[in-house]
Amino acid sequence: MIEELSLLLPVVRAASFQIELAAMVESYSTILFRVAHAVLRNASEAEDVVQDVFVRVIEHQGSLPTVRDLRVWLVRIAWNLAVDRRRRIRPDQMDGLFAAALIGRDVPADIALDEARHLQRVFAAIQKLPSAERQVLLLAALEELETAEIAAVMSKTESAIRALLFRARTRLRTRLDQGGKA
Amino acid sequence: MNSNRNDLTTQRIDRILTALAETQPAPGLERRVERRVLAVLDARSSNRPLWTRLNHRLLPPPVALLSGLATLAAIALCVSLFSNSPLRPATSVARSPGPSPTAFRAALETSTANRQNLPVTRTKDFGSHTPSPLSPVMLPPVMFPPVMHPLHAESLSAPGIRHPDSSTSAAPLSESDALALAETQEPSHPAPDLPLTAQEKLLLRMAHRHTTRDLAAFDSIARDEQLATDQAQFLQFFDLFPKGDKNENNN
């Protein structure tokens, strides 16, 4: 009887992993998409990142039981994959498209063009922030992660996260006001 | 002028950050992710059982994933039921068939129907887990072969009754089987009294902590009576011995 159960054990273990995986896909796909999209500003690229995250989970399924906070772990993977992907593609073009999509259609063309240019400058300024400040700014903007979770993602303290967020916003505003010279 | 520019800049920053926060993925993101995940799982598990591979070829990947999970859960349920059944012999698990394809298909239909009926809702609060479509999946009723009671078995194996399926069931019972059957049919006796538990023993010790002498010490009248009784018993004890015996004892 014990031998029969031991034969079934890998099957049951694989089943439980697959159940966990399916639940993960349902629960975390959207937040992972938003995290990737905050970096890439492109929906299809962000979706690819989400898929890659779950492929990574399959590859590292052995370390799943040691993961303390699954959400934090997945967000960290998504962030790293998105940053890697951004290095390989041309992000400026994507920023332009995303900025143009933010402007309403009823706005006159010249104003829309001008506003899109301004928004693109904001994206460029965000990209020029120090990496830690940029990461805090974008993760905090998602409004789905608590400060403690962001701190866990970045392996920093909560007070450091608050300070980074304050500095990021201040630096961004100053740079934009001074035309990117700060 | 400067404050206006600052406000405008802040507005633009907030606008962009809000847009990033409110970005929605294209519908069906989860299904596409599941498809990719299934493809990876397929590639990784080349030594998968035949029924799983067949199932994945016949059904769309998300349905196949759910069906596989439901079947494995059914297997786990079967194992737990078999292991808990006292009447079933130990070898029955090896002989018992796995979930039948009918039950398997029923599980598929149920899971698919549940998924189709599930409204697609997106909540902004991801701290609480969104309900998984797996959770409401109803497992198919697993059909076990009926467990045969010894009495029923005896009636079927009686010489007068012929069972159409089993020619061996008409054979008479061996001596050991008959003894076992008789023991099984005997009326059960009431169980003997259980020994006291540790708590009950403690209660007893609390209730009978003091002897009568100790208890009498608390009451002056009872104490005097007890002392008088003790003295009387003492005197009575030594009056029993003759005086010569006392001297011998002293020597």
Rg of chain B: 41 Å
Structural shape of chain A: elongated
Low-confidence stretches of chain B: 85-113, 118-169
What is the percent of helical residues of chain B? 55-70%
Determine the fraction of residues in helical runs of chain A and give it as a percent range.
over 70%
Radius of gyration computed on alpha carbons of chain A = 20 Å
Secondary-structure element string of chain B: HHHHHHHHHHHH
Number of helices of chain A: 8
Biggest sheet features of chain A: none
Oligomer: heterodimer
Question: Can you describe this structure?
Answer:
The complex is a heterodimer of chains A (182) and B (251). Chain A has helices at 2-40, 43-59, 70-88, 91-102, 109-128, 131-141, 147-154, 158-177. Chain A is mostly helical and 182 residues long. Chain A is elongated, with a radius of gyration of 20 Å. The model of chain A has no long low-confidence stretch (mean pLDDT 84). Chain B has 251 residues and is mostly helical. Helices cover 61% and strands 0% of the residues of chain B. In chain B, helix 3 (50-58) runs antiparallel to helix 4 (61-84) and helix 4 packs across helix 6.
